Amino acid sequence: MPEQRWRPLLLRLGSEMTLWYCLPIAFLAVYVSLYAAPAAAVLPHLQLIALCLLALAALRLAADRWLPGLGARLLGASLAASLAASLLLYYGLTIIGLSSWGRVISWSLITTYAAQALDLAASLGLSSTAVLAGAGCAYVGLALLAFLYLARFDWVPLLARRFSGGMLAFATAAASGTVAIGFYQFSTDPWIQQAEPVSLTFFPRQATRTFQSQAIDSAEAGKRDKLEDAARATYRPNPAAARRNVILIVVDALRPDHMGVNGYARDTTPNLSRLAKAGVVRNLGVAHASCSESSCGLLSLASSKYVHQFSSRPFTLQQVLVQHGYRIHLILGGDHTNFYGLKESYGKVDSYFDGSSAQGYYMNDDRLVSDRLAGFAASDGSPVMMQFHLMSAHPLGKRHPEALRYQPVTNYARTGIRSGLDVPTASILNFYDNGVVQVDIAIASLLEILGRKGYLRDALVVITADHGEHLGE
């Protein structure tokens, strides 16, 4: 008889736990099988899920104790929907990060883009109203499903009827204490080595140093560090060297074969083409990116090294120019500050500004770059290096009306495009080429401001990319 009294409670509790673990297990199967994560990540992640479920149980027990039946059920449904929505969103973002740049998404990236979610949606061609309405409807739908489930299968009232108020209060306090201890242990000793995804999200800097999907071998990097330190210590600037201003304009995801100045059928770069006809701009020929990702591409630009030659303390172009008396200024579109230590890889500079610092702009809007430059004082004749980073060709870059020359368009960051399987559609090519048109406009704006302020009187201007872009070839 006692066993029969407990059986309904245990069945409901077991059924709910089974439902809750379906999503994490499905995600972990994808994480391990498709993205080569170690199997050691599975158990720690399930332990974290258990802590979340224990916290949810403690809150539901407290609600059942202090709220009337309907109020407790409504609160329980809201809490369950919030946890389910958080898991769905986190797993989706993690898979996007792994697919797009080979890393588990970091918390700093989540918060940065969450603050600009509507701008991000607009860059993807989504209506802000539709996004908000869709998110609201999805949450309400989850809450309704949870409410209906709890109305029939809630185990909390069954447990409450079997214990006194004092026992329930003790159980709630014990569960809360266990959750607090568990999350404290997680914060002080996360499962980094096991590649548990939440640990990598909150503590990305503690992981093995990587550049997106390219890893740096610590032992080999240590050997190269000594060589870099020796080169830095023995380098002596030539007093007779000409100290021309160095202007480096890096365009994210720019393909040379889609630039009119390089012979592309479409006139996507009219401003650069005019400069080329005037003999002001020339193509230096074939130059290959060291990799297909921003982090290693940008470090290669700074260090003149391939990925397998990277060290932790590279002797960079910026450091060489500092020894020649240059001031170094970085004005960068996009969020380099929160992108896995990318900002730190630039080293010490005289001024630094990127999209995460901009107020009133979408971080991937290149107008923030030109507007920041417009606030610089005129050249005083001292040598400077200025490095710019433009996002107009990137699928997350903001497109302005004056660049929307080719129609119709499809942002492939939203629709997806499989390399080697899909033939690029006209709308995808139109979207990308409009980005190149906007790059040309942005470069013309930068050159106009630099010229007006005197920085081009004696200058070397280099226009390049961190990497190219696949459009389905």
Provide an overview of this structure.
The protein has 473 residues and is α/β, with parallel strands linked by helices. It has 2 domains: 2-205, no CATH class; 214-465, Alkaline Phosphatase, subunit A, CATH 3.40.720. It has 17 helices and 7 strands. The chain has helices at 2-33, 42-66, 69-101, 107-115, 117-123, 128-153, 156-162, 165-188, 197-202, 218-234, 270-277, 294-303, 317-323, 342-345, 367-374, 412-415, 426-452; strands at 210-211, 214-215, 245-251, 327-332, 351-354, 384-390, 459-465. The strands form 2 sheets. The protein has a 5-stranded parallel beta sheet with strand order 5-4-6-3-7, with helices on both faces. β1 (210-211) and β2 (214-215) form a beta hairpin. It is elongated and about 90 Å long. The mean pLDDT is 90.
The CATH architecture term of the largest domain is 3-Layer(aba) Sandwich
Biggest sheet character: 5 strands, parallel
Individual helix count = 17
**Which residue ranges are poorly predicted, with pLDDT under 50 across at least 5 consecutive positions?**
none
**First-to-last CA distance:** 68 Å
Q: Can you tell me the CATH superfamily of the largest domain?
A: Alkaline Phosphatase, subunit A
